[in-house]
Write a structure and sequence with these properties.
This protein is of the alpha/beta class. It folds into two domains: 213 residues, Vaccinia Virus protein VP39 (Rossmann fold); 49 residues, no CATH class. It has eleven helices and nine strands. The protein starts with a helix and ends with a strand. The chain binds S-adenosylmethionine (SAM). The site of S-adenosylmethionine has 19 residues, from helix 1 and helix 4.
């Protein structure tokens, strides 16, 4: 994808996110409560924040860079923890959403920039924590990807941390879809080592993937609402009530797997990974 196409694609996603709040969808969401989506959100928040809390200090001096901030979920959480946050996204419309999501009080702690992770117009050695949740996996061009890794390390303070959340299989699968690249854990570790940072911690995020598969299918289908409504009208399995019930059961089964086993060597089997890198001193 060329730079303009990339920006256009993510702008389109930002507009979709806003239109998803239409009355019709709200009504549908209430009927078919997606326990899985809520669970996935909470799980990501628990894992990312529990790792980030070790870096964030209560003092205002902690400087956080939120790369690919999207609608501002992490930016808001870091600003609420009294950090000074710089939020960056390639999509101007995402930046608009991110600004809207932050309260006036916390807005003073955040500065926003439209720019690509591969070309950060930011100073060297500036941030204690660089947060990058499901962003690098969307940088499809190899040169841009390598440059993005170098940029992430460049702007981090020596001894500072880079927190990545990625679709990263442990074994040698290298595949690309229209909007996603799959890099093995090993490639991340190698590329960051070359750039001057080492992997200090990792954990699995979605070890429960087989159990939550139907929920993810449903989630994916919800991006194409016409297909979703078509199915729901014809098959009782897709009725709002049964989907809500099934997703509730899936959450009950997934929780102990993700929370208890994701941090053990079994996490190796999962494709979703959080990786923490430390920049060499
Ligand atoms: C899957 S969303 C994740 C958003 C946010 N990090 C979160 O976890 O809610 C990916 C985000 O990365 C942004 N993005 C994609 N490619 C980028 C690039 N090259 N530089 C900066 N941001 C990029 C997109 O605009 C989008 O907001």
């Amino acid at each position: 994808m060329r730079a303009e196409e990339l920006e256009g694609y993510w702008d389109h996603v930002a507009l979709e996110a806003r239109s998803a709040e239409s009355e019709r969808v709200k009504k549908w969401k209430n009927a078919a409560r997606n326990w899985l989506a809520e669970y996935a959100d909470k799980r990501a928040k628990d894992f990312v924040l529990s790792i980030a809390e070790n870096v964030l200090k209560p003092a205002r001096s902690t400087r956080v860079l939120d790369i690919g901030c999207g609608p501002g979920k992490w930016t808001r959480l870091f600003a609420e923890r009294r950090s000074r946050v710089t939020a960056v996204d390639v999509s101007p419309k995402m930046i608009v959403l991110a600004k809207e999501s932050i309260s006036k009080e916390n807005l003073t702690r955040v500065d926003f920039h439209v720019m690509s992770v591969s070309r950060l117009r930011l100073p060297d050695n500036a941030y204690d924590l660089v947060n990058c949740v499901t962003v690098l996996q969307h940088v499809l061009d190899d040169d841009e990807w390598e440059s993005a890794v170098k940029e992430l390390v460049r702007v981090t303070k020596p001894g500072g941390k880079i927190l990545l959340y990625e679709t990263a299989p442990s074994l040698a699968i290298k595949k690309r879809t229209a909007h996603l690249r799959l890099n093995t854990m090993k490639s991340y570790a190698n590329e960051f080592r070359k750039a001057g940072a080492r992997l200090v911690y990792w954990r699995a995020v979605d070890l429960s993937l087989p159990i939550t598969f139907f929920g993810l299918k449903k989630y994916a289908a919800s991006f194409n609402k016409q297909v979703y409504y078509f199915l729901a009208g014809r098959f009782s399995l897709f009725s709002p009530k049964s989907l809500s019930f099934l997703s509730k059961i899936a959450v009950a089964l997934a929780r102990p797997i993700d929370y208890r086993l994701g941090g053990t060597p079994l996490g190796f089997l999962s494709v979703g990974k959080i990786m923490l890198f430390e920049k060499n001193v």
